[in-house]
Write a structure and sequence with these properties.
By secondary structure, the chain is of the alpha/beta class. It has three domains: about 70 residues; about 60 residues, membrane protein fhac (Ubiquitin-like (UB roll)); about 140 residues, Rossmann fold. It contains seven helices and twelve strands. A hairpin with a 4-residue loop joins strand 5 and strand 6.
C-alpha cells in the first residue's frame, strides 16, 4: 500500500510539472499572439494614415492646380521699395515668381536671402499682402569710395568692399590706393585697419564744406609715410601722416588761407609736423 501511495504521489508530481509547463507555454503563446495582433494593428493604422495623407496631398495638389489655372491666390503684383542702385529685373530674377505662383507657397526666408545676396543690397525684407501682392523692402549699401585692388571695387561707409566697378559705370568717388594684396601678404587684419584709416580720413575731409569744395580725388596709404591725399580742384598733394588727421587738415587749411592766391603755385603740402607745414612750389613753366 505504501508503494502504491508513493507511485501515486510521483504521478501527481509529474502531472503538476506538466501542467506548469503547459501553463507557461500557454502564456507565452498568448503573449506572442498579443504582440502579433498589436503589430498587425499598427501596420494597418500606419497604412491607413499613409493612404489618408496621400489622398489629402493629391486633393491639395488638385486644389492648388485649380487655383493656379484660375489665377486665384496667385502673385499678381510685386511692390519693391528702396532699390535705387539695384535694377528691378535683378530683383525679379531672385524672386522667381510669376502669375501662376501661389502667394502662400512663396518661401519668404529663402527669397529674402537670395535678394540680400545682390551686390548693392545690405538688407531685405519680404512680406505677403493678401490676397495677391508681394512686398519687397530693400536697404542698399551706399558707396563712399572705390578701392584699387586687382580692379576697382566699391566701398561703403562700413568698410565693406562689395562690388567691382563694371565697364561703363560712372565713378564719382575718391579712389583709395596703396592697399594692394602684395603689400600685406595675406594679413587681412592689417589691411582692414589700413582701409579703416582711409575711411576715417575721408570722414574728416567731408566734415568741412571748404574741403568738400576743393574735392578729394585720391587717398593713398603709404606704409612708411602714412596717408596722403590728392585734391581735385588744384591737384594738390597733401601728406598727412598716420595720426591726428583732423589737426593735419586744419594746419593745411590755415596755410592755404594765409597764402591766398599764392596757393595756386603750390603743388605739395607736408603737414606731418605738428608745428609747421612745408610747401613745394610748382616748377616754373609747369
Amino acid at each position: 500500500m505504501a508503494q502504491k501511495a508513493a507511485g501515486t504521489s510521483k504521478r501527481r508530481l509529474t502531472n503538476r510539472r506538466r501542467d506548469l509547463r503547459w501553463g507557461r507555454s500557454g502564456r507565452r503563446r498568448r503573449q506572442l499572439r498579443g504582440v502579433a495582433l498589436r503589430v498587425l494593428l499598427g501596420v494597418i493604422a500606419a497604412a491607413g494614415l499613409v493612404a489618408a495623407i496621400w489622398g489629402a496631398r493629391r486633393g491639395i495638389a488638385g486644389l492648388e492646380q485649380a487655383l493656379r489655372e484660375r489665377r486665384i491666390g496667385t502673385v499678381k503684383e510685386v511692390v519693391v521699395e528702396g532699390n535705387y542702385q539695384t535694377a528691378r529685373g535683378e530683383i525679379a530674377r531672385q524672386l522667381g515668381v510669376d502669375g501662376t505662383t501661389l502667394l502662400h507657397r512663396v518661401d519668404l526666408e529663402a527669397t529674402r536671402e537670395r535678394i540680400a545676396s545682390l551686390p548693392f543690397v545690405h538688407e531685405a525684407e519680404i512680406s505677403r499682402q493678401w490676397p495677391d501682392r508681394l512686398l519687397v523692402s530693400i536697404a542698399e549699401r551706399v558707396p563712399v569710395a572705390v578701392i584699387n585692388l586687382d580692379r576697382l571695387h566699391y566701398v561703403d561707409g562700413g568698410g565693406e568692399i562689395f562690388k567691382p566697378v563694371e565697364v561703363g559705370e560712372e565713378v564719382d568717388f575718391p579712389v583709395i590706393t596703396g592697399l594692394e594684396k602684395e603689400r600685406f601678404k595675406g594679413d587681412r587684419v592689417a589691411r582692414r585697419a589700413a582701409l579703416e584709416r582711409c575711411l576715417e580720413l575721408l570722414a574728416c575731409w567731408n566734415r568741412s564744406p571748404e574741403r568738400q569744395q576743393e574735392g578729394l580725388a585720391e587717398i593713398h596709404a603709404d606704409g612708411s609715410s602714412g596717408l596722403a591725399v590728392y585734391t581735385r580742384r588744384h591737384v594738390w598733394q597733401l601728406h598727412l601722416g598716420e595720426h591726428e588727421l583732423e589737426e593735419a587738415l586744419d594746419r593745411w587749411q590755415t596755410v592755404v588761407r594765409y597764402l591766398g592766391a599764392e596757393a595756386d603755385r603750390i603743388t605739395r603740402f607736408d603737414c606731418r609736423n605738428r608745428h609747421s607745414v612745408v610747401v613745394r612750389y610748382r616748377e616754373t613753366g609747369s
